[in-house]
Every structure is written in C-alpha cells, then in structure tokens.
Amino acid sequence: MFLYMRNLSYFLGGNPKHDRIGFRYWRAPDGPMGKYLLDQVKNESLSIFLGFWATLTNALFAYMGTELIGVRAQDVDLVVFHLSSSLRLLSERLEKIFLRLVLKTNLFSG
After folding, report:
1. Cα(52)–Cα(55) distance, integer angstroms
2. Roughly how many angstroms between the first and final C-alpha of the chain, as a whole number?
3. 92 lies in which domain range?
4. Which residue, among 89, 86, 91, 92, has the nearest Cα to 68 in the 3D structure?
5. pLDDT level of residue 93 (50, 70, 90 thresholds)
6. Is residue 24 included in any domain, yes or no?
7. Neighbouring C-beta atoms of residue 94, cutoff 10 Å
8. CB 61 within 8 A of CB 51
9. Domain total for the chain?
10. DSSP single-letter state for residue 15
C-alpha cells in the first residue's frame, strides 16, 4: 500500500523536480487526442478523429479485459471456484506489471 501511495504522489508532482509525470502531455492542442498522425493524413479534422479513435480503441480493450472474467464465469459449472481463480490470477499479473513499471520508472528517473 505504501508503494501505491508513494507512486501516486510521485506521478502527481511529489518528485524532486515537482513535475507531473502522468499528465505532462495533456495540454491543448496536442493533448491525448489532438492532431494524431497529422503529417500523414494532411487533414486536421481527420487527425483529431484518428486520435479519438485510437484512444477509444485502447479504452475498449482495457474494458474488455475486465468483462472477460464475467463472461468466463458465466460459462463454467463451478462459478465460484473459477471466478476466484481468475481474479487471483488477474491481481497477481497486475501486481507484476505494476512492479515492473515502478522499477523501470525508478531506474530511468534518477
């Protein structure tokens, strides 16, 4: 729990440089969905739509990953056993990914 709180404060500006790492590129006009692939498509409206589409696609895949646990639980006989094993595996994998990201961030930020 300490690591979660430390990293949250670190990403929100509690680091030595007082830099908000997580939200550094969320400024107009080149925010998370602004002018994506503008030099390839040569149309500003289309590039903003492509940025929105890329963001929406990533969000859908992230949401779909959580929904698949419920779909799997619905299709099996021993729902409680399989749901608990799926959630346990998911939490273990998320912890591993989080720890890898923390280690990479700590290694490359210093």
Report:
1. 5
2. 23
3. 76-110
4. 86
5. very high
6. no
7. 10
8. no
9. 1
10. S
Taking only the tens place, the pLDDT of each residue in 50-85 is 888 888 888 888 777 777 777 776 666 666 677 778
Are 84 and 69 in contact, with CB atoms under 8 Å apart? no
Q: Is residue 4 part of a domain?
A: no
- Residues in the chain, total: 110
The amino acid sitting at 77 is: D
Q: Which amino acid is at 73?
A: A
Nearest 5°: the CA angle 49, 33, 104 is: 140
For residue 104, is it within any domain? yes
Q: Does 13 fall in a domain?
A: no
In this structure, are residues 90 and 70 in contact, taking their beta carbons and an 8 Å threshold?
Answer: no
